[in-house]
Amino acid sequence: MNELSFEPDWVSAPGATVVALTIEKSYEPNAMSEVLGLGTQELQAFFDGDLRIDQCLAERLAASVGATARFWINRDRDYQAQLEKAANKLTSSMKFPISDLERFGWINPRRYDASDALAVARFLGVKTPADFDERYGELEEALAFRRSATFDLEIGAVSAWYRAVELECARLKVSDWSPTRFTENLREIRSLTRLRQPSEFLNPLTLLCAESGVAFCLVRAPAGCPVSGIAQMVNGRAVIALTSRHLTDDHFWFSFFHEAGHLLLHSDQIGIDVDAKADGEDEANEFARDLIVPKSSWSKLMSLDVSKFSIVRFARDIGVSPGLVVGQLQKAKRIRYNQFNYLKNRFQWHGTNLERA
Fold it and tell me: Are 320 and 194 within 8 A, CB to CB?
């Protein structure tokens, strides 16, 4: 039998073994595409461990690289078992909101006899707990800094949401990041607060951000994810993502302007909004407040004889929705948090789409 002469590493993908053998046999890796009957993308998927070895591919591997077809079938089987073992270790070390991941279409609903661990790991783009730490380590640190008491319960849900944000933003075409253009566009974005339907303001908001080099997306938070929004630079690309957890216009727009502040003031950090009182948030909060109510109008707001009509009139005068004015009055403790909430525009989730309630 023409079996391999070395002990293979079962944790690595079968494709890694093939790469090692092509070097040993002086094959050009690109030549393997023709030999194995795989296209360029399929070959890369095979090398990465994302393409299963069927009988046909096993026979081609045996004929071109060595060993037997049975060896390659077993190699693939053992690799899949190791993947599932690693995925089970990952999903047992932290809590993932599986039902929401399925409901939002992030992973496929499992069969009654199948493990959801592999589906979660594949969605996250990782194979092992070490991969997870490498990929989401910075996010873990940012969350732990703000939420140490509940960190272990939340990191699974937050990382799943963050991965959905990555995938959504990757589909967006945006210009080069321009802080100047973004600052200018924030004036027009501010005027969108007067629109009541998400279907009316989300598209222009996304376009105005894209013109400025910001990939903006709204991604529903799964159960256990406490995040309202996040802002960061990813490979030179600015990203803002919101969850609209509180389902009112004042929270939605304050969160957006807060994250915009992070991009413009703290672009070298991950701005993850889980607690408005967390250290380092004051500047972003002030930035958002001053966008909603200009400094020149703040004293007038603080001396306002508060009523439904005065709030609506003040909001009209400064060019924002009444709900945002109510939110600022509540934050400033001019009114209680249970007052004038009927002036806020309320939203609801329909699947993964935000709608007016």
Answer: yes
DSSP letters for 175-213: ----HHHHHHHHHHHHHGGG---HHHHHHHHHHHHHHTT
Helix (H, G, I), strand (E, B) or coil at 237: strand
d(CA 212, CA 76): 46
Strand partners, 234: 237
Per-residue model confidence (pLDDT) at position 331: 95
What pLDDT does 99 receive?
A: 92
Q: Tell me if 211 sits within 8 A of 185, measured CB to CB.
A: yes
Whether the predicted pLDDT of 8 surpasses 70: no
Average pLDDT of the chain is 88
Decide: 75 and 21 in contact? Cβ < 8 Å.
no
| CA dihedral sign, ordered 220, 226, 229, 232 | negative
Question: 127 in the Ramachandran plot: left (φ > 0), alpha (ψ -120 to 50) or beta?
Answer: alpha
Domain boundaries, the chain: 14-92, 93-146, 151-354
* Angle CA 180–230–213, to nearest 5: 30
Non-local CB neighbours of 153 within 8 Å, separated by 6+ positions: 95, 224
Residue 248 main-chain phi, psi, to 5 deg:
-135, 155
Provide Rg for the chain, Cα atoms: 26
- Quickly name the fold that domain 14-92 has: 434 Repressor (Amino-terminal Domain) (1.10.260)
* pTM for this prediction: 0.86
